[in-house]
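Worked example 3 (structure in, sequence out).
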């Protein structure tokens, strides 16, 4: 039977058309809504433990999907491979010399300006959900509408039964900080539940969500579904490593009482469990019709070494430690899906990128660069030569006792890496083109003396630029969380 249009429906359509018509009789275009922003940060997830990076067994189909539908940055790095300073750099777009969080013991200064303040002023609803993990009391961040975190176990949280804090209010274990979101006890699931409920509750307005996972940090516990998935997987250690390297001098403080092979399996299973939850959040964006107008970024706060250089953990200026996954999906940029970029990008670049996507001016105190032009220029393939976006950058590690890692400053270019140690270890120079695993130190090679001199000059310039004091440009007053 043919359906008829009611008089009231027809009248409402006519009223809409009249209201949308300009004086010249043309329809006035509806203003385009600001893109939503979802930034997902993992803890200690190294760049090559992804299916999209060709890992031989780790299954990450949902992060791989972001890469398939977006752009994968194969050379993404952090300027300090340690949780707290790296996280502060993601938020502020600054080197540790500027934001002041130099290691896991130097406190966050709430005079720091985060990208949330600018987005809030631009009309975004803002949320931070997950692991804060910076020294000092949990701050009252300006420009934040919803702040869900935890201080359990010194801010590390536990994989099971972590009590949450919402906008400064401490809850009991099992209580939800987001009405309507379930708490099942496994932290990766819980944080995802909170994020999904937040997205659903705020789907009618532009939102900026920062979802910060505990996974895949020690103790590397997968959920029940992923546990045991890789039990029968053969693990090949780096040639310089052995099964009980965790008990060797310099590594014992990382508390890996199992063999290296068994802990790598735990790590991989925890990554797969996290990937499953990322898929749930992506499905929610699809279900609500938000994916096309959402900038989705997945990254990690630092990498992780599994026996390379006979080391475990991060902190060092080696590739496995400083290199991170960085995958972007933003259909509004106009790229051809599935592209890969070899440009060097940094955690400093996140904040400027988010402001750029929102159409905001990037303040002068942010030391990173927006990667949006790299997305926009990829519609017909990568026409740029590697290094045009950034030809060199500086890495810093400030000591954090009791970890037996010397303070170090490094310069990383497309081809070379120079590492300057403050004590206890000979400086290192690597040709990453011929020696990607950094096994052959060229610091005393006369044939590379000129290269070393040039790199030291570049490093000195990078240090001077990072240390320059920049006037913080705060947006108009925004409220703190209540």
């Amino acid at each position: 039977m043919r359906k008829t249009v009611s008089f009231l429906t027809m009248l409402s359509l006519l009223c809409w058309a009249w209201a949308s018509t300009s004086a010249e009789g043309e329809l006035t275009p509806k203003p385009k809504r600001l893109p939503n922003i979802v930034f997902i940060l993992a803890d200690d997830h190294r760049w090559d433990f992804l299916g999209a990076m060709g890992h031989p067994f780790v299954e990450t189909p949902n992060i791989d999907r972001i890469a398939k539908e977006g752009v994968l940055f194969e050379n993404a790095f952090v300027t300090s491979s340690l949780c707290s300073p790296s996280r502060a750099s993601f938020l502020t777009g600054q080197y540790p010399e500027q934001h002041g969080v130099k290691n896991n013991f130097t406190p966050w200064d709430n005079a720091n300006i985060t990208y949330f303040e600018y987005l809030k002023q631009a009309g975004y609803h803002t949320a931070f959900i997950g692991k804060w993990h910076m020294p000092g009391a949990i701050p009252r961040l300006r420009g934040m509408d919803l702040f869900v975190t935890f201080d359990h176990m010194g801010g590390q949280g536990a994989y099971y039964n972590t009590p949450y804090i919402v906008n400064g209010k401490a809850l009991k274990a099992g209580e939800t900080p987001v009405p309507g979101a379930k708490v099942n006890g496994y932290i990766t699931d819980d944080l995802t539940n909170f994020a999904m409920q937040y997205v659903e509750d705020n789907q009618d307005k532009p939102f900026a969500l920062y979802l910060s996972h505990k996974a895949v940090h020690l103790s590397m516990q997968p959920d029940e579904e992923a546990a045991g998935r890789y039990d029968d997987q053969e693990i090949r250690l780096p040639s310089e490593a052995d099964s009980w390297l965790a008990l060797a001098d310099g590594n014992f403080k990382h508390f890996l009482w199992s063999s290296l092979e068994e802990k790598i399996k735990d790590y991989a299973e925890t990554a797969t469990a996290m990937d499953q939850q990322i898929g749930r959040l992506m499905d929610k964006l699809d279900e609500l019709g938000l994916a096309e107008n959402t900038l989705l970024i997945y990254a990690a706060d630092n990498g992780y070494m599994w026996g390379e250089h006979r080391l475990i953990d991060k902190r060092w200026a080696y590739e496995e430690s400083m290199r991170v996954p960085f995958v972007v999906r933003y259909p509004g940029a106009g790229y051809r899906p599935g592209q890969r970029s070899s440009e060097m990008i940094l955690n400093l670049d996140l904040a400027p990128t988010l402001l750029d996507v929102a159409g905001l001016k990037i303040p002068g105190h942010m030391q990173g660069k927006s990667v949006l032009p790299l997305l926009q220029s990829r519609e017909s393939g990568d026409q740029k030569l590697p290094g045009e976006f950034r030809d060199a950058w500086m890495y810093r590690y400030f000591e954090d006792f009791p970890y037996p890692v010397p303070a170090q400053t490094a310069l990383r270019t497309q081809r070379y890496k120079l590492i300057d140690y403050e004590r206890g270890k000979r400086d290192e120079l690597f040709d990453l083109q011929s020696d990607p695993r950094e096994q052959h130190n060229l610091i005393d090679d006369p044939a590379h003396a000129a290269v070393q001199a040039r790199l030291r000059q570049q490093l000195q310039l990078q240090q001077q630029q990072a240390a320059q004091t920049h006037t913080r440009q705060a947006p108009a007053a925004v409220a703190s969380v209540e």
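Notes: Residues 394-465 form a domain with the Arylsulfatase, C-terminal domain fold (CATH 3.30.1120). The first strand starts at residue 36 and ends at 42.
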